[in-house]
Amino acid sequence: MSAAPTAEQLLADLPPTAAVWCSGLRKRYRKRTAVDDVSFTVGRGEVLGLLGPNGAGKTTVIKMLLGLVRPDAGEVLLLGRPARDPHSRSKVGYLPELFRYQPWLTAAEVLDLHVRLAGATVPAAERRECLALVGLADRAGDRVGGFSKGMQQRLGLAVALVARPEFVVLDEPTSALDPIGRADVRDLMLSLRSRGVAVLLNSHLIGEVERVCDRVVILDKGRIAAAGTLAELLGQRELRLRLDKVDDAASARLAAAGEVTSDGDLFTVALPADPDADIVPDLVADLVELGVRVHAVEAGRISLEERLLDILRTGTEEHR
Ligand SMILES: Nc1ncnc2c1ncn2[C@@H]1O[C@H](COP(=O)(O)OP(=O)(O)OP(=O)(O)O)[C@@H](O)[C@H]1O
Ligand SMILES: [Mg+2]
């Protein structure tokens, strides 16, 4: 018979706690409510996008998660520990929205300093690799006082990543980056996720969020206006067709599939939320039968940008 498992084995077998869990967060600055009843979770290995207009409360939420701003109400668990506990932050990497490093230090020295502050042990080769990852390999020995805006942001990313974090919080990581830098950061986030590292990404670049995030939380005036997976938020699919010889009968057949808008020979059909699996081939077969010439059929869905604007303009909460 095998020996009884040790307490350590039992703990190791427990499902890992969420990277972050928060509930009922509130913050007021004088009379202004910055954050009002915000709750969400970021699971291990999940990339969560935090979206919303300027002043929506995104940075304030992030600071409360990291114990940098004290909430008026609500609770936070960071990697399973209360956010007040400084140990909760040792495995968290953070790229702040606004920051300045000591201008007299070199890039390599800034990293060394942060490794020491995190109480981590990271071999020199790995630290160099981290600078290379953000494209600063050949600037390691240069003082950061002479760095361009984008180079400072790249260094900030290296600082957030160097101490082998389990959870990375990025507050607008690409606002100063060139297009290649942005693509690099996207790859970086995907590689973090594949290694089980959780990421909270706050960005105004919606395309970026759409490409890398598993789930999205949309804040508006301090409250959660919508939240869900991309599939949940962008549920409605549409079908774009390029057609010729569309008569009344064909128009009626298109309208039977969903709401139709047309622009010249381009027809867009908004499909129902839960369409029948054969809806597209059936439609195409019927159109051909009716004498329509079908030049192109393309499935698409509304973009996150359209959805976001829709949510913010109507201001209505719509959970699907
Ligand atoms: N230290 C502070 N003192 C007073 N008010 C503050 C402070 N920090 C934030 N606020 C207010 O809280 C609200 C939310 O600000 P926050 O920085 O969280 O917005 P944000 O969503 O990150 O916006 P942005 O997209 O512009 O970065 C704003 O009205 C802001 O003026
Ligand atoms: Mg902000």
The strand count comes to: 14
Beginning-to-end CA distance, first to last residue: 51 Å
How confident overall, as mean pLDDT?
90
Overall tally of domains? 2
Share of helical residues: 25-40%
What molecules are bound to this protein?
adenosine-5'-triphosphate, magnesium ion
According to CATH, what is the class of the largest domain? Answer: Alpha Beta
Put simply, the count of helices is: 11
Q: Mind summarizing the main beta sheet? A: 6 strands, mixed
Class per helix and strand makeup: alpha/beta
Q: Tell the overall outline.
A: elongated
Tell me the Rg in angstroms.
24 Å
Family: Belongs to the ABC transporter superfamily.
InterPro entries: AAA+_ATPase, ABC_transporter-like_ATP-bd, ABC_transporter-like_CS, P-loop_NTPase
Organism: Asanoa ishikariensis
Domain ABC transporter: 20-246
Task: Give a quick summary of the entry.
The protein has 320 residues and is α/β, with parallel strands linked by helices. The protein contains eleven helices and 14 strands.
